[in-house]
Amino acid sequence: MSSRRQRSRQSGASRITDDQIADLVSKLQQLIPEIRSRRSQKASASKVLQETCKYIRNLHQEVDDLSHRLSGLLQSTDADSAQAAIIRSLLM
């Protein structure tokens, strides 16, 4: 017996149903812009998960880029200014 099946049987109370998985995939599908724009096509769960991971990676990259830009802006701003305080609050 596979270890996956053993874990599944051991944690029967925390088992997730196929309907619950389908519902969660559907919710993800609604959240991801790339998939949402192709609403007429039914994407597979695998495709939804791949696109979700890609989207999250892109969001992380955007956050890193914006943080870098804000840090550069902060360095070129008077440290005691109101603008510097706003930038510092955005970086926290």
From TrEMBL:
It is found in: Nucleus. GO terms for cellular component: nucleus. Keywords: Growth regulation, Nucleus, Transcription, Transcription regulation. InterPro entries: bHLH_dom, HLH_DNA-bd_sf, PRE. Pfam families: bHLH_ILI. Residues 5-59 form the BHLH domain. Gene3D superfamilies: Helix-loop-helix DNA-binding domain. One of its GO terms (molecular function) is protein dimerization activity. CDD domains: bHLH_AtPRE_like (cd11442). GO terms for biological process: regulation of DNA-templated transcription; regulation of growth. PANTHER family: TRANSCRIPTION FACTOR PRE, TRANSCRIPTION FACTOR PRE6. This is BHLH domain-containing protein. It comes from Salvia splendens.
